[in-house]
């Protein structure tokens, strides 16, 4: 049941024309783990990358229940009204324990889904985080080349996916809730250090006062952290996806951030180091996928895995044996 | 200034005799990134592993300021009094942003450091998490072979190191504080799902009531999570490292857990899948270290990294070129 592929030229010209169907097929292509697809995808990316890079890349994270989908729906609407085309990419965490609800959430972004100026795409969960983030990054570049001026990368996870997303965006936003749930959805120091802004969501109705109180508390807490290397102090905002309050302020804050970072040089230096990290991630991904797809390695693993499981074979000695076989070191 | 190495036999017999000096040198050996040291370390591990596996492995995590060091000092004292030998290994997170204070903390465990029945060892921060956790795991096995019956693996991080540590222990304990700091040191769903117990620390003096209230709140919150596959519901305890209150109850809880998991088979099946994961981690580590230590790869990277940085060369195409060179695929 292998689906027909387009030619490199067809993918590239379709993406550059903003053809949503071709864009979707191109993202499917880069997500494929088949070696032949990877080679094709790389040729497509080679030609697409010179046309990428012109969007504002925003990471959005928060625990389940914080209202990411409704926030993205309402916040996205403001960007569409301001004339931007918006792409939303969702990174499913590779954690096997916490099953993500991202795919389910997507159906709830009804308005954005129906709008021709928006494009919504979940990324599949992968066995390695490097693989997931590499593919999300390529999907992001494809969306940029297709003319989307703002990209949201949505993540829900246990830390790993946030770190990966932080490594591919310009601005990282953490959604929070005020009130009773604080203990369960609280923020860790490391997450705060990654964030450029906290937004207290669901600040409407009876919840407005609690949200403003939380805003003050978090703002005070953030004062305890040192300034970031780019000179930006993370801001705390309140917003409501229901009433729309605060959403324009969030967008103003992001624009202010981008302006400052462009003028002090951080915007470009950040993207430059992201490109280098991307290379290292891609190397890791290729090394592992080549390794595990190698027929000889597959055979060795299937014949001896049980011995590793029950402890009869040493996990490290067997690992080294496999790697030696793979890179064909015949002697020492 | 290369330090003299011992022979494989000297390492092995020293470790098995419980010689602390040799144990320390063996851990230093497994932590070395030199290829020759790695080969030597592997031979040592091969002989040591059959003598390992008999300890109770406990992961302890919590944000900075939660009192991990004083908890470990007081809790460790209870284990020593109960006749156990205790090793404490600290995993420094590989995050470059949040500089860990683990090494600083170690000097604060004055009592444990001075006790011959205890052994304290920080692990160095590594560039890859796989590398760090692989070496911590080997250090753990060395300590077991040296006769330590309980191993603490202490971690402070932003999620990544917790996941790695969860993958090598039998029991995972999250330290928390009650009260004003909840927003900052709160727990994420993914972390709770990894934990076998929450312990509200610093439950002494004016703080006792708040700790007990937090205990009730967290216990209620944990009811919302489904039971784990092993049938264990995470417990919430309070303790004080200062007064010693609650520490014996924590130890009783861990013993109860170990007994249950041994009788329902989870203890062994968990360790079996940990061994398989360990093999995969080690493969990843070896692939990357062999790759980046390869002279040809080093040369190619140094000659073209600037082009990747400034965007003149494609990060993914250059990554693939490097990997192709490394595994010597001459044609397609």
TrEMBL record, chains A, B:
Pfam families: MeaB (PF03308). The keyword Nucleotidyltransferase does not apply. InterPro entries: GTPase_ArgK, P-loop_NTPase. GO terms for molecular function: GTP binding; GTPase activity; kinase activity. GO terms for cellular component: cytoplasm. The keyword Transferase applies. Keywords: Kinase, Transferase. Belongs to the SIMIBI class G3E GTPase family. ArgK/MeaB subfamily. This is LAO/AO transport system kinase. The lineage of its organism: Bacteria, Pseudomonadati, Bacteroidota, Cytophagia, Cytophagales.
């Amino acid at each position: 049941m292998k689906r027909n592929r387009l030619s490199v030229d067809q993918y590239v010209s379709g993406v550059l024309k903003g053809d949503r169907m071709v864009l979707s097929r191109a993202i499917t292509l880069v997500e494929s783990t088949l070696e032949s697809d990877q080679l094709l995808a790389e040729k497509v990316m080679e030609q697409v990358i010179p046309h990428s890079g012109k969007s504002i890349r925003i990471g959005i994270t928060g625990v389940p229940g914080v209202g990411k989908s409704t926030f993205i729906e309402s916040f996205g609407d403001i960007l569409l009204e301001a004339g931007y085309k918006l792409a939303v990419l969702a990174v499913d965490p590779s954690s096997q324990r916490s099953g993500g609800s991202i795919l389910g959430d997507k159906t709830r972004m009804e308005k954005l889904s129906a709008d021709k100026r928006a494009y919504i795409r979940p990324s599949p969960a992968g066995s390695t985080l490097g693989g997931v983030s590499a593919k999300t990054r390529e999907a992001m570049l494809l969306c940029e080349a297709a003319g989307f001026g703002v990209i949201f990368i949505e993540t829900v996870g246990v830390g790993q996916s946030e770190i990966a997303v932080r490594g591919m965006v310009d601005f990282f936003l953490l959604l929070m809730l005020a009130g009773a749930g604080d203990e369960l959805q609280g923020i860790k120091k490391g997450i705060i250090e990654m964030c450029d802004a906290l937004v207290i969501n669901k600040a409407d109705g009876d919840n407005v006062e609690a949200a403003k109180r939380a805003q003050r508390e978090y703002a005070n807490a953030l004062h305890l952290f040192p300034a970031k290397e780019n000179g930006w102090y993370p801001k705390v905002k309140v917003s409501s996806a229901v009433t729309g309050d605060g959403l324009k302020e969030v967008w103003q804050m992001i624009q202010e951030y981008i302006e400052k970072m462009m003028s002090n040089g951080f915007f470009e230096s950040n993207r430059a180091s992201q490109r280098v990290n991307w290379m290292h991630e891609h190397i890791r991904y290729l090394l592992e996928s080549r390794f595990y797809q190698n027929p000889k390695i597959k055979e060795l693993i299937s014949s001896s895995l049980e011995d590793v499981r029950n402890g009869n074979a040493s996990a490290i000695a067997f690992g080294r044996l496999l790697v030696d076989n793979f890179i064909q070191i015949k002697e020492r």
